[in-house]
Amino acid sequence: MSASARLIGQKDPVQGQEILCAGPISVGRDPTGNSFPLNHASISRKHGRVFPDGTHWMVEDLNSSNGTYINDVRIQRVQLKDGDVVRFGDIPFKFIMEQAQAQQASASDGFEPTMMMVGGLKGLQKAEPSQVPSDFEGTVFGGNAAAFFANQIQQGAQQAAVGAASVGAKEVAVAAPLEAPPQTNAPNFFRLKLTAILTALVIVVLLGSTIAYVYVRGNTARMRSDAVKEIKRATDAFSRDKETRSLQPDQLAAAFNADLVDLDVLRKSIDEKLVALADAGANYITELKDRKEKVEFWAFERKLHLFIEQGLLDKAVNLAGEWEKEGTENQKQLAPLAQHLVKFLAFKKEFPDLPRSSKKTPDKKRVLQLGDDCVKMKEEYARISSNPLATEETYFKRATTSTIDNEEARIAWWRQFWSDWDEHEREPDATRKKVLLDKLKRTYPNSEKVVTLN
Predict the structure, then answer these.
(1) Would you call 452 helix, strand, or coil by DSSP?
(2) pLDDT for 221-236, tens place per residue?
(3) In 10 A of CB 194, how many CB atoms?
(4) Kind of pairing, strands 56-61 and 77-79?
(5) Exposure string over 199-219, b if 16+ CB within 10 A, otherwise e
(6) Is 360 helix (H, G, I), strand (E, B) or coil?
(7) Are the beta carbons of 313 and 324 closer than 8 angstroms?
(8) Is the pTM for the entire model greater than 0.85?
(9) Residue 249 — very low, low, confident or very high, per pLDDT cuts 50/70/90?
(10) Which residues are CB-contacts of 180 (< 8 A; sequence separation ≥ 6)?
(11) Mind giving me the DSSP string for 301-334?
């Protein structure tokens, strides 16, 4: 049976509270369906449970929304160890195993050395140490004691018979000494058994250590792999659900602000995993860093769009400049393209219509500069065509390709407007000038700049 255990709350609202785990403990927000109800926003109605399994204690997540964690690693079902921090949602508990009482040893094995009185039988002589057969030593560990005592009695009887015959004959002679029994190299069973026992113990310890090492190593590797898989699933889900949406212009700001909140949570989760797996293999760390770079890129493109939506062009340009100075290698490659893209997105927001239907007129210098930027933008996109951040399906990629395909034509229309305007302004002949003015008014009927001309 498993020993009892305790869960000790580590922060409010359960700071210092202890839960005695004498049997299964269920945690959840439902006050009637859980043995430990916990009313907290991060806790599901049926969140998780701690239960005994043979000689161990286990913790299991019950498909909760915010997950169950062991030492900040999200789990489904894992064996608990003394000192583990179990976190249900945002509420952590420390798991403490109750130490089992050491049991008193009953008795060594009940054997005490026995004094053997050989003279109890008339005529028996005291057995010399050399005459004590090795069977005696064996009696300590289960040898044949009966055979030993029978052997002694038989030897004593033989010696008594010889003595009696000598006295009866009243021979005055010195009896010939008894011939000592031949010395034998009998095996020492005590040593053999002790050696076998010690060898078996060493094998058991080595085998147990090997199994424990393999289990711990395998369990650790599985937990690390699960942590990375959790991040991969979360980032893939974000890309699938968020990056492929079609948003109307009036929906973009609200959607991107909500995305930034989700991305911040995801980034913090990756940072926690990077700390927890600092001593793990390079593959785990590389995968997590790649996922973090994606998350940062998604946040970057959303901030760019939000700055443009708010008319904060300088902030958008500065954000791209920060990437160029302090970003990763992939981010630094994207920074020049992002700076060009910001200018086009800002221009499109400020002048959404073509010159024929637009009332406002952009600055001539700005239009000419954007024409040059179209060429540079195409070159930048071709240069980084192998960069995964630029080529994966994102808002950034769609905005870039759309700009390359469409904004060049928009800028060409505006350059034509300024060409027509300059031609009218430079014309010295009054008749010809009036013809050019009529052309301007027909071509750009809504332009406030053209309407002011006489």
Answers:
(1) coil
(2) 677 778 888 888 998 8
(3) 12
(4) antiparallel
(5) eeeeeeeeeeeeeeeeeeeee
(6) coil
(7) no
(8) no
(9) confident
(10) 130
(11) HHHHHHHHHTT-HHHHHHHHHHHHHHS-HHHHHH
